[in-house]
Amino acid sequence: MKVELIIPIDVLRGKLRRDGYYFRMYKGKQLVQRCPNRSGHKKTEAEAANQRHFAATWGKRYKKFKD
């Protein structure tokens, strides 16, 4: 949904409250959108494999910064 902000506020980005909405800019227009609800999401085998591959590739590289 397009949003028109009041004069002193030029741009909003991110969440203001925990009401399930966030603000962003898209092609020069201010938009407000619902936050995605992934609480009931179940990973597909492809998503799980991708996460394992990412962790194996990049997890070792940055392990020293984890502590």
Morphology: elongated
Main β-sheet: number of strands, strand sense, barrel status? 2 strands, antiparallel
Question: What string gives the helices and strands in order?
Answer: EEH
What would the average pLDDT be, to the nearest integer? 80
pLDDT under 50 segments (min length 5)?
none
Alpha-carbon Rg, integer: 18 Å
Distance N to C terminus:
42 Å
The count of DSSP E runs of length 2 or more, i.e. the number of strands, is 2
Q: Quote the beta fraction.
A: 15-25%
Helix fraction by DSSP (H/I, runs of at least 4): 10-25%
Total count of helical runs of at least 4 residues: 1
Oligomer: single chain
How does the helix and strand content classify structurally?
alpha+beta
For the largest sheet, list the strands in their spatial order: 1-2
Q: What topology emerges from the helices and strands here?
A:
Layout (H helix, E strand, L loop, with lengths): L20 E6 L2 E6 L10 H15 L8
Antiparallel strand pairs: 1-2
Describe this structure in words.
It is a single chain. By secondary structure, this protein is α+β, with helices and mostly antiparallel strands. The chain is built from 1 helix and 2 strands. It has one helix spanning 45-59, and strands spanning 21-26, 29-34. Strands 1-2 form a two-stranded antiparallel sheet. It is elongated. It starts with 20 loop residues before the first strand and ends in an 8-residue tail after the last helix. The model has no long low-confidence stretch (mean pLDDT 80).
Question: What key phrases describe this protein's structure?
Answer:
18% strand; alpha+beta; two-stranded antiparallel sheet; 1 helix; 67 residues
